[in-house]
Design brief:
The structure holds two protein chains of two kinds. By secondary structure, chain A is mainly α. Chain A contains 19 helices and three strands. The longest helix of chain A has 42 residues, at 140-181. By secondary structure, chain B is α/β, with parallel strands linked by helices. Chain B has five domains: 1-69, no CATH class; 153-212 and 386-461 and 466-522, Rossmann fold (3-Layer(aba) Sandwich); 219-381, Dimethylsulfoxide Reductase, domain 2; 555-692, Barwin-like endoglucanases (Beta Barrel); 707-741 and 748-1011, Alpha-Beta Plaits.
Chain lengths: 436, 1014
């Protein structure tokens, strides 16, 4: 397989511009949508958080399909059932017991914490799901603003350049016209250009200056080219599954550590194993994903991307069981962040001990449809952060001490007094901290 | 003054012949055929490629190669489909299990990463034999040995298990009908499950015979104990109550004995009142002998007589005593005096496999009242139970053709017992359950792989108080099946090895999970053995044993077999064990005949140092009765008793794998079942190349290893007289080495300050730490040739120094001049005292290496460590030149790729690579490396403390070497932690820095060795 380093710098800008446009469109659409269906939108969120693991709107899952449930049951009954169905059944409600029997006695969780309004919102959503808008949060706007400015700058320069060329052309024409008026022989633009070139070529000072400028520019470019060797910033390989961090970490607010659980305790953040995916995707098969036009993206079928997880782990989505004796096929993700072997990096040190946000190094992952390497991951980048970041000295490792011994904090205070304690001051720039 | 001397290259030059003149004019001896090539128009003219084209191609391909190198490869990252709960990628998981390799037993912890065992660590406190010797440490590499058998084999072709099992069943049934025996040959069996299977086989088949055979036999000794106690087992030695240990040739510190004694020995050797005194009477200079306070040289044949004489002295009886030299006699007499002074608080041990000697030693112990106090006969150890008489009967039966089916499991008698190889073919059917196609398995009609101990379920009762449970730490790498299942299947028991073990644990009424977690449990399996009865039996049989001992015939030369770190040879194909130099001779990758300097001179045996510093030696032929060994290299060994030679077993393999095959000679071929015997030695043609790692054999009167006698130590606890610190006269008066300072000091008070203390009194020199370091830090194996070039890569070495007969005092007394004095000082004495000193990077706080590195690749940390950044190193080697301790190692080759190292370097093998520690960089060619004080462990330990939000506790983690050290000689920790073990050690009067006068202020310091001289 070739390493498809998808975006070159240009394409990366193009992507950004495209992203800005999409987001801008979405944001502009947002006020209307929010205005139209306030209840249902809250209901959608609540539905996803509380109900989606067992219910779908249009088909049976663990529990019955809930689309149009308000037409089948009274609101009061539904409120009682959802709040605490066991109580309702115990009260001898015939309908409640019938449903309980119909679904093989699987017990539905009680939702005592949901208010009446919450439940009504959920019911509103089950009535009119399509009206609820897809994604798009206002939080993205500020981060995209500078990108837009960057794009405009470049365009502006091109336009200015074009104006300059046009201006020179016009001046030459005017000069020519004036010459012709004064009776001298006129020249064409081409002749002017030739004359200028000849004059410049024969001007030693100019040629010397030009040579120096070109050479310096070349060396400058070469230097940065070589410095960039092995720096894989913006690396965005095609992954075996079109997994969207935006949907998971952004729209659905899944905590990074839910999937990358070992980041807290281990050197590796860990790619979640397929059984972690199945915790949710046993119930969410992507059939309800809606595209930008507001239609079902896969026509109501399950998402082919989620089906890849099923294929890996051997989940029979029709019968909702794991296939016995299935030869599981591990998912071969492409590793994004490749530190050289000579550098030792430990996630737990940064996430747990240093309490660094994931986004500090990995960027706005919650906004990445397709994840890419956000940071340079060069040694200079590491070192800079170690120079600037303050140590979380509240940790008992620094703050506490055995009987009869000074704590590290006390010793640091004795040496540095009131200065802030950066990672550098406790030895964070020493070679052996990362290279061994 | 300009020299007028002229050196001639040879007689030709002197005579100034024509040839010599021509040679002087021309750079090359033969003319280079440039004209023939360039002058030939037809070749040059026809060439399609012009010079310009060539340059174009060259430029283009260089540019293309450069650009291609810029493209990083795609790296896949493949998570589990279903991740096991107990496993977190990047974090180690530990399993408690039992290490059993056919010779040793140890309770160990196995560190695994992502499902791969990568390190063996000592078992839980309180477990029996919880220490890890060199073999136990290295055993994890034997798991990944690509020479292991991968599929069952029948008649030389691969087959499956069903065929093997069907064939076995058929052969066994056929042997029943034919009225022939069904024989099972194993090593010592001390597994309850395996014993249960054997009992079942005995029930099912009337013709079933089971024999146990140990590679290094203890059969005669076991016979004696069986007669004395009724149990075929060795007694437990309890050193905790001993003040004096006298060992007749028993090498109990080298890890070759069944019971680990190093820790108890070191605990009793703490300097101070009541320090254990140790006298060794032996012929070879053994590891144990080099630790002794007093060492007496003796011929192996004299040991029996010496013991009989000793018995007479301590008991007042008069059993017959064979011939004994006067020097030995007087030495034994003084030993008897010392023993009598500590009755009941002493112990006499005996090595080798002589029943008479063992009985006499038991009688001496009985006479001294040691039986029941230091010699616990009521606590038998079952690790050895081989029976040579039974085995010899089986060999005779085989030769007679009365064996129908022969199964060999966990033994390699074709290698260890001369004559067995011919007998195997006589069996109608033979099956070898083995780990590789070894000498035996390549003779049997079928061979099938058994799992390595790290892949298998097993249970053991090594003694009366311990049930050890072994659990797998990795899925079997190959298509193997445990002998338990194969033989159990024969009786119709189709249960798995795990079920067998579970049943054993349940049988003792123990909790399965807890037992598994702890790696075993304490049980009470006591044998009712009366110490008094045993003692009286031992005494009453003494005269018969003395008769037998006095009839032993000596010879002009007697050989005593011994074991190096390779041991009996079960792990001969493990390169780490060969790379570790012998602690005494400091020669690696070999076995050889050790011989005294006087005998060598008499026989014309020469050991010569070559111009490159390497050692070459003569070859000899050794003959013991009808058995001959040719091409045995001879090494002159100080301290070897005259008239004796030593030879290590475990070498001379022919079917162990590419590392071991053809290395050394097979000492088992001398057929010395007692471990010693008379031999004749004749010099033969040829020379052998040794790979020795140490040139200097003595300390030349310097304070490298500081030593003091117990009496002096007790008389001056402050150490002022025996641990003098070097001082310097400066402008500001007399200053110590650390005060006379050129540089600004580092800040070592604010954070941690890692220091290491090495107690030379506890260090026995065994080398387990070196192997532990090897595997913890991915140190490359370089092989014999490179070791010969002194390019060994061990980060930690154990220097061995002999004492010389020449001392400053003697020189003054005898009026010997300085030159003669120093020349004599270089020569080790005939009966030298030996000291060991582990030396690794001393992590100098004023490090000479740091100041000379032109690229700042080696720099100091504020935690007292000397860091080495491999990726910054450009390989100038200035640092190594400037290091006074010579602990820096240079990667001369790409050991992971270079074909020269394919045979020895495990990192060149897909299986062997799995042993690499993923937290440590594998170094590239051209960079310097050295001890990091297990920086990866320090960082891990600190992080664990931060994750828990607690201050770092003393002893929360330690270095690989300190962990592997049974005797606790190495203490590691933070000196800034009040009351930490290392802080206490630093302030001890015995502590000193190596070459303190150099002013390097190391973070490593040593504790003075104290000898309990009489």
């Amino acid at each position: 397989m070739n390493r498809s380093k998808k975006p070159t710098r240009m394409r990366f800008f193009a992507n950004k511009v495209f992203r800005v446009l999409t987001i801008a469109l979405m944001v502009s659409a947002l006020p209307y949508a929010a205005h139209a269906e306030g209840d249902a939108e809250l209901g959608k969120k609540l539905f996803k958080a509380n109900c989606a693991s067992c219910h779908k709107l249009d088909k049976k899952l663990v529990g019955p399909a809930l689309g149009g449930v308000t037409q089948r049951r009274s609101e009061a009954w539904l409120l009682a059932w959802i709040r605490n169905n066991a109580e309702l059944r115990a009260s001898g409600d015939a309908d409640a017991n019938a449903i309980f029997e119909e679904y093989g006695g699987s017990v539905m969780t009680a939702f005592e914490n949901l208010s009446d309004d919450d439940i009504k919102s959920i019911l509103a959503y089950t009535d009119a799901p399509a009206a609820a808008p897809a994604g798009g949060t206002t939080g993205e706007v500020p981060t995209t603003a500078p990108v837009a400015a960057e794009g405009e700058d470049a365009t502006l320069l091109y336009i200015l350049g074009a104006f300059l060329v046009l201006f020179i052309f016009l001046l030459l024409r005017i000069r020519n016209t004036l010459k012709e008026v004064s009776g001298e022989q006129g020249t064409t633009v081409l002749q002017d250009a030739n004359a200028l070139t000849k004059w410049l070529a024969s001007n030693k000072r100019f040629m010397t200056a030009l040579t120096i400028v070109v050479a310096v520019a070349f060396l400058y470019q070469l230097f940065w080219f070589l410095m960039g060797v092995g720096v894989e910033q913006n690396y965005q390989p095609v992954q075996p599954i079109a997994f969207s961090h935006k949907i998971h970490a952004g729209d659905n607010q899944v905590d990074c550590n839910y999937c990358h659980s070992s980041a807290r305790s281990s050197k590796h953040s860990g790619i979640p194993s397929a059984n972690v995916c199945m915790n949710c995707h046993m119930y969410i098969d992507g059939s309800e994903i809606v595209n930008e036009a507001g239609q079902l993206k896969y026509g109501g079928d399950r998402s082919p991307e989620i089906a890849k997880i099923y294929a890996a782990i051997g989940w029979d989505a029709e019968n909702r069981t794991y296939i016995e004796n299935y030869e599981q096929k591990p998912i071969k993700w492409i590793r994004l962040h490749n530190l050289p072997d000579l550098a030792y990096f430990n996630h737990a040190q940064h996430v747990t001990a240093g309490q660094v946000e994931c986004q500090t190094c990995h960027g706005p992952v919650q906004e990445m449809e397709e994840v890419y390497q956000y940071s340079e991951l060069t040694m200079g980048w590491c070192i800079n952060c170690h120079r600037e970041t303050e140590v979380k000295t509240a940790n008992g490792y620094y703050a506490n001490a055995e009987e009869g011994t000074q704590s590290i904090n006390e010793r640091l205070a004795a040496k540095f007094h009131d200065e802030s304690i950066t990672v550098e001051k406790i030895g964070g720039l020493e070679c052996g901290k990362c290279h061994y | 003054m300009a020299t007028e001397k002229v050196y001639w290259k040879g007689f030709d030059q002197l005579a100034n012949t024509d040839v010599a003149q021509r040679m002087a004019q021309n750079e090359f001896a033969q003319e280079i055929p440039v004209d023939q090539f360039l002058g030939d128009e037809s070749i040059v003219g026809k060439a399609q490629t012009t010079r310009r084209d060539f340059l174009k191609y060259l430029g283009f391909s260089t540019a293309a190669a450069t650009l291609a190198a810029c493209e990083a490869p795609i790296i896949e990252s493949i998570p589990y489909v279903v991740k096991p709960d107990s496993l977190t990628p990047g974090m180690p998981t530990y399993y408690a299990t039992a290490y059993v390799d056919g010779q040793d037993f140890a309770s160990v912890l196995v560190k695994t990463r992502e499902g791969r065992p990568i390190k063996i660590e000592p078992g839980d406190e309180g477990r029996f034999n919880r220490g890890t010797n060199g073999r136990a440490q290295a055993s994890v590499l034997s798991l990944y040995d690509s020479a292991r058998l991968r599929q069952p084999i029948k008649g030389g072709a691969e087959t499956d298990w069903a065929t093997i099992e069907a064939d076995l069943k058929q052969a066994v049934d056929a042997s029943v009908t034919a009225g022939k025996q069904f024989v099972l040959v194993t090593g010592s069996v001390f597994s309850p499950s395996f014993k249960a299977v054997i009992a079942k086989l005995r029930q099912s088949y009337n013709n079933f015979v089971h024999v146990e055979v140990d590679a290094v036999s203890s059969s005669e000794v076991l016979d004696v104990w069986e007669a004395l106690t009724g149990v075929r087992a060795l007694p437990t030695v309890d050193l905790s109550g001993a003040d004096l240990v006298v060992s007749f040739g028993e090498d109990f510190l080298s890890g070759s004995s069944a019971q680990q004694l190093s820790k108890a020995y070191a605990d009793r050797r703490k300097p101070g009142k009541g320090m254990l005194r140790h006298i060794q009477v032996e012929s070879n200079l053994s590891l144990t002998g080099s630790n002794a306070d007093k060492r007496v040289k003796i011929k192996p044949s004299e040991v029996g007589s010496a013991l009989a004489y000793l018995y007479n002295q301590v008991s007042g009886n008069s059993v017959s005593v064979g011939s004994l030299s006067d020097s030995v006699k007087s030495a034994v007499k003084s030993i008897a005096g010392e023993l009598s002074a500590s009755k009941g608080r002493s112990i006499v041990l005996v090595g080798g496999n002589s029943g008479a000697n063992a009985h006499l030693a038991a009688a001496v112990n009985a006479a001294l009242g040691n039986v029941g106090s230091t010699l616990r006969v009521d606590q038998p150890i079952y690790i050895r139970s081989g029976n040579d008489r039974a085995f010899n009967n089986v060999v005779a039966d085989l030769k007679a053709g009365s064996v129908g089916a022969l199964v060999i499991a966990g033994a390699n008698p074709a290698y260890t017992r001369p004559g067995f190889a011919e007998a195997v073919a006589k069996a109608s059917y033979s099956l070898s359950l083995c780990d590789r196609l070894d000498e035996t398995a390549s003779l049997t009609s079928a061979a099938a792989p058994v799992p390595h101990y790290l892949e298998s379920w097993a249970d053991y009762t090594p003694n009366t108080t311990e049930l050890a449970v072994a659990q797998p730490t990795i899925r079997p790498l190959f298509n193997s099946k445990s002998a338990l299942e194969v033989l159990g299947g024969l009786t119709g028991e189709k249960q798995s090895a795990k079920d067998w073990v579970k049943a054993t644990v349940a049988g003792y009424g123990l909790s399965w999970s807890q037992t598994l977690h702890d790696g075993g449990a304490s049980i009470n399996n006591g044998a009712a053995i009366s110490s008094a009865d045993t003692a009286s039996k031992a005494q009453s049989g003494a005269s018969a044993a003395a008769e037998q001992a006095s009839s032993v015939k000596g010879g002009d030369f007697e050989v005593a077999l011994y074991q190096k770190t390779v041991g009996a040879g079960f792990q001969s194909n493990n390169p780490w064990l060969h790379e570790l130099p012998d602690p005494i001779s400091r020669a690696a990758w070999d076995n050889y005949l050790t011989i005294s300097a006087k005998d060598a001179l008499a026989l014309g045996i020469v050991n010569e140092t070559q111009s490159n510093g390497a050692l070459n030696g003569s070859l000899v032929t050794v003959k013991a009765g009808d058995f001959t060994l040719e091409n045995v290299p001879a090494l002159v060994q100080p301290g070897q008793a005259q008239g004796t030679v030593g030879l290590a077993v475990g070498y001379g393999r022919s079917a162990a794998g590419r590392v071991a095959d053809g290395l050394g000679v097979n000492a088992y071929e001398l057929n010395l079942s007692q471990g010693f015997g008379a031999v004749s030695i004749t010099l033969q043609e040829g020379e052998h190349e040794f790979a020795s790692t140490q040139l200097g054999n003595t300390m030349m009167g310097r304070k490298i290893v500081n030593e003091v006698s117990l009496a002096d130590f007790m008389a001056d606890p402050s150490g002022a007289s025996w641990n003098e610190k070097p001082t310097f006269h400066t402008m500001d008066g007399v200053k110590t080495a650390s005060e006379a300072n050129l540089w600004a000091d580092h800040d070592h008070e604010t954070m941690h300050m890692w220091n290491m203390s090495i107690d030379l009194n506890s260090c026995t020199g065994c080398g387990a730490c070196v192997i532990a370091c090897h595997l913890e830090n991915n140190v490359p194996v370089v092989g014999k040739d490179e070791i010969r070039n002194f390019r060994d890569m061990h980060w930690l070495r154990i220097d061995r120094y002999y004492s010389s007969d020449m001392t400053d005092a003697r020189a003054e007394e005898e009026n010997i001049g300085a030159i003669d004095k120093y020349a004599a000082m270089e020569v080790p004495g005939e009966s030298p005292e030996v000291v060991f000193q582990p030396v690794m990077c001393q992590h100098c706080n004023h490090a000479p290496c740091e100041t000379v590195c032109p690229v700042g690749a080696t720099v100091h940390s504020r935690e007292g460590l000397n860091h080495m950044a491999y990726n910054r190193c450009i390989g100038t080697r200035y640092c190594a030149n400037n290091c006074p301790y010579k602990v820096r190692r240079f990667n001369w080759f790409n050991y992971q790729k270079n074909e020269r190292f394919t045979d020895v370097n495990p990192a060149q093998d897909d299986f062997g690579r799995m042993v690499l520690n993923p937290d440590v960089t594998v170094r590239a060619r051209g960079v310097m490396e050295k001890c990091t004080m297990c920086l990866q462990r320090i960082q891990y330990g600190k992080l664990e403390a931060k994750k828990a939000g607690q201050p770092l506790a003393d002893g929360a983690f330690t270095t690989a070497c300190a962990q592997a050290c049974d005797t606790g000689a190495i203490t590691f920790g933070d000196v800034n932690t009040a009351g930490s073990a290392v802080q206490v050690a630093k302030n001890d009067a015995r502590s000193y820095h190596l070459l303190e006068e150099v002013g390097t202020q190391p973070s490593v310091f040593y504790q003075t060795k104290v000898r309990n001289r009489a």
